[in-house]
């Protein structure tokens, strides 16, 4: 930064033997400076075409002090009625408190050590302030301070401890382990220039170049490698990293049959091999194939994943000579040792073979049902003694006439089976509503066919009996005791039969008090007047869709529920209504919603035309078939 041009005239103040204009500052060394700060300012003021220029100065990092330490002094040609002010990084900006200046004499001080890796550069500004007015008396002068690096940081590895797995058959001279070292000192200097070398490995043999050493077991191939990173600073600093190398097995050994010839008269033969590679790896797992003697596909051989044995399965044949080969999933490779020309290469070698002499013994095959699952459709409640099913069975090894049959599963005990013919006959009437019949109206029977072979073989057949419904259940009131809190109550009605034998049902009032009935999923009884609190027995007539009629009663508890659905206080004991009372109560039987409801007319007598009681109507939420809520009002 250039200072103001030098002016001449008797009105300007003077300092020492040099003449300065009012708009000029002079920063002077305090000679001698301590050795560690000797390079702090270098040629601070340079004369260039009548201007004073401040150059960048350097300060050595990590100066140990003592602090505060005098560094430089600022002088001016102004009178004593002024003071100095310092600002910028290290003063009014982070790191605060690093530099300060004496207000009176302009001495600049350093208060602590500086880490270049944190603060490599400072920009400081000087001002002269009039003590009385507080105003600046000259332009601000700036100074740049650069921190000189020392070798105070050792290089470091990004990963001081590494675990790496490498294949056994890697080419020599190649180790796929990336190592990254860094140094926080100034770049492009000896302090950050790093050299890396290998210090040690454990175990020492085989070498990391992965040259195979004869007799080495694969469980020894785990190496600990110590690597050093060292910079070129003065003094030189270093650090180390540890690389744990695990050598993964590759296929360097062929599987070898334990026996060269084998003989068997069993249905299944196991052939065993030995393999020095690591168990349960592709290099160890065997792949078997039949090389000779299986031209007609009468044999197959598979690998036991646990034992690595070959399992030879015999499909009926009279062949006696079989040759089996074995090789690994991973191709074989061999390391050849020849000094500088040592190589590792994949080889194509003939697989190991073994000859097997097979004497086939026929085994007893089980009988086979013509159909494993048979569907039979019958009506429920049929008379006993009906033959439901007769099986068709074939057996290639045994006489079909000697097959015997057994009933394995018949949970309801409805059937019996002929042990010679296998005929399944009913001994009880079948009920579709039985708990042993599933939701799809299916009853399951299991039978078994057993031949006379050695040992006996069996086959199982399944019979699915689809039961058709009959009108064998009467409709009924689900809840016999009901609470009437106002003038209506829900009356649920159900029938266990399926349509068209069950609900929706016809419902009417009993005791010869109606000739009309409602046919709907929901309907109700409506009280035609306010009834005294108490218990009432109301007769009902229920009829299903096929005309089956049943008389039933429902107990109605009329009480004060207080806005809820339960009685608040005790009620009088239950009493039955005689015919006259029922006639009065039910004389007002009316049919509601005539236009929107389907009306049936089962044979009943004419209703009474006078008196107050209940009337029957349909609920607007009618939708069920098997259980009908009705309500009384």
From TrEMBL:
Task: Cite the entry's keywords alphabetically.
Answer: Calcium, Cell adhesion, Cell membrane, Cytoplasm, Glycoprotein, Membrane, Metal-binding, Repeat, Signal
List the Gene Ontology MF annotations in alphabetical order.
beta-catenin binding; cadherin binding; calcium ion binding
Is this entry keyworded Repeat? yes
Q: Which GO terms describe its cellular component?
A: adherens junction; catenin complex; cytoplasm
* CDD domains, per database record: Cadherin_repeat (cd11304)
* Low complexity: bias regions: 600-611
| Entry's localization field | Cell membrane; Cytoplasm
First and last residue of the signal peptide: none
Region listing for Disordered, in residue ranges: 600-633
Q: What is this protein called?
A: Cadherin 26, tandem duplicate 1
What organism does this protein naturally occur in? Answer: Hucho hucho (huchen)
């Amino acid at each position: 930064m250039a200072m103001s041009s030098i002016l001449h005239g008797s009105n300007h103040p003077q300092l020492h033997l040099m003449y300065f204009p009012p708009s000029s500052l002079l920063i002077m060394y305090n000679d001698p400076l301590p050795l560690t700060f000797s390079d702090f300012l270098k040629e601070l003021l340079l004369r260039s075409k009548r201007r004073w220029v401040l150059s960048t100065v350097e300060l050595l990092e990590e100066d140990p002090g003592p602090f505060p330490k005098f560094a430089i002094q600022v002088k001016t040609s102004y009178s004593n009625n002024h003071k100095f002010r310092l600002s910028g990084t290290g003063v009014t900006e982070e790191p605060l408190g690093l530099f300060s200046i004496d207000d009176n004499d302009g001495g600049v001080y350093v208060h602590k050590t500086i880490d270049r890796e944190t603060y490599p550069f400072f920009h400081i500004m000087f001002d002269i302030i009039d003590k009385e007015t507080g105003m600046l008396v000259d332009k601000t002068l700036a100074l740049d301070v650069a921190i000189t690096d020392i070798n105070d940081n050792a290089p470091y590895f990004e990963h001081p401890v590494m675990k790496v797995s490498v294949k056994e058959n890697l080419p020599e001279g190649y180790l796929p382990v990336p190592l990254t070292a860094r140094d926080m000192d100034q770049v492009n200097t000896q302090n950050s220039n790093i050299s890396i070398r290998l210090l040690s490995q454990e175990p020492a043999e085989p070498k990391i170049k992965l040259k195979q050493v004869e007799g080495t077991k694969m469980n020894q191939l785990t190496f600990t490698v110590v690597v050093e990173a060292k910079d070129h600073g003065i003094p030189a600093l270093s650090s180390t990293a540890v690389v744990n190398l695990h050598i993964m097995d590759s296929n360097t050994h062929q599987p070898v049959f334990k026996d060269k010839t084998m003989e068997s008269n069993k249905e299944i033969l196991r052939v065993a091999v030995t393999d020095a590679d690591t168990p349960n790896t592709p290099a160890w797992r065997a792949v078997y194939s039949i090389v000779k003697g299986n031209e007609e596909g009468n044999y197959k051989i598979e690998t036991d994943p646990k034992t690595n044995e070959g399992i030879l399965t015999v499909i009926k044949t009279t062949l006696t000579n079989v040759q089996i080969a074995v090789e690994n999933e991973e191709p074989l490779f061999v390391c050849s040792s020849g000094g500088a020309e040592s190589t590792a290469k994949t080889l194509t070698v003939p697989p190991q073979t073994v000859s097997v002499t097979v004497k086939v013994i026929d085994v007893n095959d089980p009988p086979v049902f013509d159909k494993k699952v048979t569907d039979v459709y019958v009506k429920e409640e049929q008379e006993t003694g009906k033959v439901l099913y007769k099986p068709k069975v074939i057996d290639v090894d045994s006489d079909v006439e000697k097959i015997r049959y057994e009933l394995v599963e018949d949970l309801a005990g409805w059937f019996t089976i002929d042990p010679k013919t296998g005929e399944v006959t009913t001994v009880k009437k079948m009920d579709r509503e039985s708990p042993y019949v599933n939701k799809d109206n299916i009853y399951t029977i299991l039978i078994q066919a057993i031949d006379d072979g050695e040992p006996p073989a069996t086959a199982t057949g399944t019979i699915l009996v689809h039961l058709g419904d009959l009108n064998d259940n009467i409709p009924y009131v689900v809840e016999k005791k009901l609470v009437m809190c106002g003038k209506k109550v829900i009356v649920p009605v159900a029938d266990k039969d399926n349509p068209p034998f069950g609900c929706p049902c016809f419902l009417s009032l009993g005791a010869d008090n109606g000739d009309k009935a409602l046919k709907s999923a929901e309907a109700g009884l409506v009280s035609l007047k306010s009834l005294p609190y108490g218990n009432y027995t109301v007769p009902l007539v229920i009829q299903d869709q096929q005309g089956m009629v049943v008389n039933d009663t429902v107990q109605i508890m009329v009480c004060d529920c207080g806005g809820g659905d339960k009685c608040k206080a005790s009620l009088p004991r239950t009493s039955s209504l005689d015919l006259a009372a029922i006639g009065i109560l039910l004389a007002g039987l009316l049919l509601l919603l005539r236009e929107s409801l389907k009306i049936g007319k089962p044979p009943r007598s004419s209703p009474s035309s006078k008196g107050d009681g209940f009337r029957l109507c349909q609920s607007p939420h009618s939708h069920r078939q098997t259980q009908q809520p009705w309500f009384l009002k």
